[in-house]
């Protein structure tokens, strides 16, 4: 059960809010169509339900708001337009990455690819997928957690009739198994053909909430709307004139002063009213499927007990097996939700065969006959249709869902990093450039051996390994904002757990680059110039620690800067900013000699420690102090401290304004 209460978006700069006080419900076992013309606020309403857009109101999914659901992907699956993702990522890689974000097994990706018929395209890049396959992949992403509720934003737009039939069959199968389906459309015939219930919106407001039979009778047939204080008299006159002329005319009293006339036109109705001197306040003619603000298509007639249903046609033979394979994916039952032995109806797509008994009034679905008053006559109020929320959850401003990370952030980050070739290309560039520079530097005996192994000439601000590590860090957050996979699922990439996972993975990648480059450069120098060319004077462990720390610092600087400024270029700029700008400033500041000596730090630390420190810790501590004493090391530490503060400030500011 989905209950939307008082959904209202923020007003635009030059106009009213796209959604204003929208309330309706979608029941389990039903396909509910959210119908309205382009710009009616349908997509905004879905984003408000998913808490992807700021605004007021609240949506309950089986009695719980989304921000209080521990695993949202297991309760709600959404398809909002195209599938967001890196264009070079494969369909299988995209689903596997989303599996880590949703907290489900990676095998679920292959299972869904098989169920939706994309096994052959599993290794296809996202930018090479046709529209139909892209839409199927989006539906697979929505079904990852086997959710109870599906929210689909115009899933059939631009598809062929066969693909639309597949989608509608899948929606029907999900509803027949007890799930809730809410989908948007601007085609009234499509809404009547597929939906069990139709919620009509226009201008962001609720216009009607009807059963599909009533929607078809009131929305798909041309009619003349008459507003007159003498509605009963005019209705009698129209019936009498129709009998005399032997014409089929249906007149429905929608409200106390409003009529809907079917089978006639404005000229005939106006002429009859003029001949019999009946005052008419408004006379309009509406084509089938039009939406009229303020008119809900519901009147004061008693609720019809008719159980007429639209005819149902089976799926084409080539598609009939799809829902059966989807049964494990679409089954959203949990313990105690559905009785055992529940009948599972076959997946079917409704065909256009709408028949309404003539002479019956328009009903307000789900409510007994009662008089209505107010400016929106015939409309269904939120108080009548939706039960009041619990006292502890007022239907005012919905508290924002806590910023969520992927449920398995380290696995997610590994799949994100290895899912495209960018990381491999960066690794390859570092491993190719470093040996060449190392050979050129080692030709001169004046160049220290560690500098030659690091391949760090004077004309480069950083060695190739450190630059590539910084680029990997910048891409880690830059791609999150350029291809917002997590944002489309209601997750903000600046979550702390995701940050820690990214720091862990990028730090490990930086160490791997540094060690591989050092090892390859050492072997190349030994082969070309002999073993005497790689003899290192000093503590080798301290040099390796400095080398790895430089790579990690550059990776984290790029990561944090890209996370703060939401773009990869900012991360790369931050990495270059350290040696080009900050390091010279630190070098100038360190010209003044120090009056204090740092000698004896290991002994003083050993005195303060309450546990025993091994003797090797002295060497590591001294190496760390010497590293910080270098201008680049000091500049890197200062930059990281500033970026961490900026990251925290931006995250807190975003929480405040959400």
Descriptors:
658 residues; alpha/beta; 6-stranded mixed β-sheet; 22 helices; elongated
Question: Which helices and strands occur, and which strands form pairs?
Answer:
Elements: E1 2-9, E2 22-26, E3 31-35, H1 42-49, E4 55-61, E5 64-65, E6 76-80, H2 91-102, H3 107-115, H4 131-142, E7 149-153, H5 161-176, E8 180-185, H6 188-194, E9 197-202, E10 205-211, H7 212-219, E11 223-227, H8 231-245, E12 250-255, E13 258-262, H9 266-275, E14 282-286, E15 312-314, H10 321-325, H11 327-330, E16 348-350, H12 382-385, H13 409-418, H14 422-442, H15 449-454, H16 464-482, H17 496-529, H18 540-565, H19 568-589, H20 601-608, H21 616-629, H22 631-657
Parallel strand pairs: 3-8, 3-9, 6-7, 7-8
Antiparallel strand pairs: 1-2, 1-4, 4-5, 9-10, 11-13, 11-14, 12-13, 15-16
Helix pairs in contact: 2-3, 2-13, 6-7, 13-17, 14-16, 14-17, 16-17, 16-18, 16-19, 17-18, 18-19, 18-21, 18-22, 19-22
């Amino acid at each position: 059960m989905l209950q939307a209460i008082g959904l209202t978006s923020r007003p635009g700069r030059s106009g009213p809010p796209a959604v204003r006080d929208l309330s309706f419900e979608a029941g389990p076992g039903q396909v509910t169509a959210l119908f309205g013309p382009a710009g009616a606020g349908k997509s905004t309403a879905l984003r408000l339900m998913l808490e992807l857009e700021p605004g007021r109101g609240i949506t309950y999914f089986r009695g719980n708001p989304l921000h209080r659901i521990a695993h949202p992907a297991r309760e709600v699956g959404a398809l909002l337009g195209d599938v967001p993702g890196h264009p070079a990522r494969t369909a299988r890689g995209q689903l596997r990455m989303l599996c880590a974000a949703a907290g489900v097994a990676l095998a679920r990706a292959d299972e869904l690819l098989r169920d939706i018929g994309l096994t052959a395209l599993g290794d296809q890049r996202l930018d090479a997928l046709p529209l139909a396959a892209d839409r199927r992949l989006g539906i697979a992403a929505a079904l990852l957690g086997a959710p109870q509720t599906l929210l689909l934003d115009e899933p059939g737009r631009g598809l062929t009739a066969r693909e639309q039939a597949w989608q509608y069959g899948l929606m029907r199968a999900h509803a027949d198994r007890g799930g809730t389906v809410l989908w948007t459309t601007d085609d009234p015939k499509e809404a009547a053909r597929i939906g069990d219930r139709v919620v009509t919106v226009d201008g962001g407001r609720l216009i009607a909430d009807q059963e599909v039979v009533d929607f078809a009778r009131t929305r798909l047939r041309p009619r003349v709307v008459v507003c007159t204080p003498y509605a009963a008299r005019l209705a009698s006159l129209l019936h009498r004139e129709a009998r005399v002329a032997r014409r089929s005319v249906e007149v429905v009293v929608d409200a106390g002063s409003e009529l809907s006339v079917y089978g006639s036109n404005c000229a005939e109705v106006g002429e009859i009213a003029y001949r019999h001197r009946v005052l008419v306040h408004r006379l309009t003619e509406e084509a089938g499927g039009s939406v009229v603000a303020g008119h809900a298509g519901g009147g004061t007639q008693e609720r019809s007990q008719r159980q007429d249903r639209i005819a149902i046609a089976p799926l084409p033979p080539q598609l009939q097996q799809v829902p059966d394979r989807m049964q494990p994916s679409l089954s959203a039952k949990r313990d105690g939700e559905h009785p055992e032995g529940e009948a599972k109806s076959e997946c079917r797509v409704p065909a256009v065969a709408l028949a309404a008994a003539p002479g019956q009034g328009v009903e307000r679905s789900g409510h007994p006959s009662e008089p209505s008053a107010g400016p929106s006559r015939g409309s269904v109020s939120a108080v009548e249709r939706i039960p009041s929320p619990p006292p502890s959850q007022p239907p005012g401003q919905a508290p924002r869902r806590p910023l969520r990370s992927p449920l398995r952030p380290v696995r997610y980050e590994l799949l994100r990093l290895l899912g495209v070739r960018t990381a491999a290309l960066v690794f390859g560039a570092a491993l190719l450039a470093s040996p060449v520079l190392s050979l050129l530097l080692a030709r001169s005996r004046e160049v220290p051996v560690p500098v030659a192994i690091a391949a760090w000439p004077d004309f480069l601000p950083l060695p190739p390994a450190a630059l590539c590590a910084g680029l990997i860090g910048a891409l880690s957050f830059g791609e999150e904002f350029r291809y917002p996979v997590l944002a489309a699922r209601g997750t903000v990439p600046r979550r702390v757990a995701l940050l820690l996972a990214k720091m862990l993975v990028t730090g490990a990648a930086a160490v791997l680059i540094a060690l591989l480059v050092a090892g390859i450069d050492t072997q190349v120098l030994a082969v070309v110039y002999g073993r005497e060319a790689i003899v290192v004077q000093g503590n080798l462990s301290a040099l390796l620690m400095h080398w790895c720390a430089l790579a990690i610092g550059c990776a984290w600087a790029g990561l944090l800067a890209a996370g703060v400024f939401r773009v990869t270029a900012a991360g790369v700029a931050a990495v270059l900013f350290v040696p080009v700008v900050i390091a010279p400033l630190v070098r100038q500041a360190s010209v003044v000699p120090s009056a204090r000596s740092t000698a004896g730090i290991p002994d003083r630390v050993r005195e303060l420690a309450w546990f025993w420190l091994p003797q090797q810790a002295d060497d590591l501590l001294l190496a760390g102090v010497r590293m910080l004493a270098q201008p680049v090391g000091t500049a890197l530490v200062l930059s990281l401290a500033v970026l961490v503060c900026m990251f925290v400030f931006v995250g807190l500011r975003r929480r405040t304004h959400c």
